[in-house]
Amino acid sequence: MSEQSVNEIDKKESTPSVPLELDAELVLEPIPEQPQDPNKIAIEERLPEEIDLADPELYFNRELSHLQFNARVLEQAMDENHPILNRLMFLCIFSSNMDEFFEIRVAGLKSQLEYSREKNGPDGMHPKKVLGLISEHAHKLVRRQYRILNDIILPKLATENVKFIRRTVWNEKQAAWVKRYFRDNVLPIISPIGLDPAHPFPRLANKTFNFVVELEGRDAFGRENGLAIVPAPSSLPRLVKLPDDVCEGGDNLVFLSSIIHAHADQLFPGMTVKGCFQFRLTRNADLEVDSDDIGVDLAGALRTELQSRHYGSSVRLEIAENCPLHIVDSLLKQFDLEQQDLYRIDGPVNLSRLMAVLELVDRPDLMYPPFSPGLPRKLASSGGLFEAIHQRDYLLMHPFESFSPVIDLLSEAAKDPNVVAIRQTLYRTGSRSPIANALVEAARNGKEVTVVIELRARFDEAENLALASRLQDAGAIVVYGVVRHKTHAKMILIVRREGADLTRYVHLGTGNYHAGNARLYTDYSFMTCDKEIGDDVHRVFQQLTGMSKELKVKKLLHAPFTLRDRLLEMINREAENALRGEPSRIIIKVNSLTEQRLVQSLYKASQAGVKIDLIVRGICTLRPGIKGISSNIRVRSIIGRFLEHTRVYYFYNNRNPQVYLSSADGMDRNLNNRIEVAFPLQDYKQTRRVKKELEYYLTDNTQSWILQSDGSYQLSKPRKGEYRSAQRALLSELADNTR
């Protein structure tokens, strides 16, 4: 996913609120707190020693914080600094993000209530209360989404000669062409279903595109029911480009929904179509593979579960805003949903499918220009990657620097006769990716290839199963990690014979081994042949592929064993230094921060006087700016052209800075329930470089949203002539440049 900056809109109200009008202030509203006992003193008025750091008032709700991140993504569609097609992309990304939010997070809360497994989070809010607040805020965001689409994005695209032609304005030639398209491409494969005792309501898969049609009259068999369902075939494109000979220039597109709507009467010959209304049902899509029922075949259990993913319990109904109430009520009853689960929309359902515009319209002038990632000169001009890495460690930051050395390292290893073994973890990479191809080639060349594939990478399970089969067919050893702990660490270990010795070459990263993501996500890659790091990675692989007691590692931090506790120790060390009057500083950059012990440790460090900067892209349950508790903590979220994905833990350490890069976020699942690693930077220049790059984010005033103590997010306001963008600075410094 990619994101970027947002224009500030004039302030109209002093109270932050999710903007419903397009000219409202760009402040994302406070996260509601759990109602407090009126006899209880507000946390801001209590003395620090009177405050329990587990008090729910100190924590924001996880799900509502997640919604706020989605809102920040949506606001990118309002930013005129983005090219217009990129603004449309942000609108699509928001739609996709909201789909997953309902499929996983909302579905999870509903399951808690259904099975009486309610569990309050650190914020103390009951799941039923959370669901109500989610509905309230999500409805506001969806209304805003369609306002932005209809009032801003589509008119702006029209001025650029990219037009979405509504069926109400088709000219005679266009209508005739669409009619032929419907006859030749739609009608032969579409299957309308009239509802009666012999035709029960069809079982609709998750997020499929459908119409509910209101009919009048009797059919050939004398049936008279009134309603029919028309599922739109998934094989049909949701956008169709009109040929130039029926248009007056430019790119002209029509929605599949318009095509079906305009010809609904042809689906029911002799009947009167009173109304045709598009709708989409969202279902629970979280896979629940019970580890106690897996037996000896995780892959088989997952394949079985994948078959049912599309038919989980209902969680949301999106439907055309003009659909009559009696039809809406009928659908809600059919899907066992409530009014708060209903979303009336003013436009096509599933806006994420508008991403097809990028393929249908050849207008590079309406998008960000491409760039060439940079590459360190010594890495580019060396006699080979093994020789280069043998001489020094390399740190790369994608997408500003090239991901190709990671692919090339594996490709060299696959061909090098001196390489005897390759081990790698894979989470999301694709069964036909360059990484997969290199591993297949290595296995076929007789290398000992062992791959730890995490099958349970959400929504990539089927792709990972295909990858596992392909690697096994090539002769690689494939294992699936540890049943109760997802393998999220990003590691490559290459064993190479050099003279009489075996040398270990290592790649460690903060992101997935996916070349496409490496152009969209910010991530660090680290390549080394440091002996102790190589030994550590070897031990982690031993634990993943074999069975053993916890193996001690020297330099890496390893979840679920040492990572969380060492992070807490380093935070506490900064607090102790501050109490002794020594300089102290903590900078943490992660995607999400929710782990309660980590949050409490940061609160204690703040109380001790440590200056703490948190760069948290998404969910943050820590509440900054509370006098005596978190007044020394600042939290910002960077939303930009690229998806911020690096995880960095920086500690000043009394003038001897320690920097760890990691695959792990500051979440309970990462630190306690996953296989993760954090790796240290041992070179002073690399440590200084990462600190400098963190400062770019901390001084960003065009793409940064500052979290307030009430839970609202305030967009930074640059002064005229003082515009600073971290991502633009990194592009300028690292990309299109051989250093």
From TrEMBL:
Residues 59-164 form the Polyphosphate kinase N-terminal domain. The active site is at residue 488. Residues 385-549, 556-727 form the Polyphosphate kinase C-terminal domain. The keyword Kinase applies. ATP binds at residues 97, 521, 617, 645. GO terms for molecular function: kinase activity. PANTHER family: POLYPHOSPHATE KINASE. Belongs to the polyphosphate kinase 1 (PPK1) family. This is Polyphosphate kinase. The lineage of its organism: Bacteria, Pseudomonadati, Pseudomonadota, Gammaproteobacteria, Oceanospirillales. The gene is ppk.
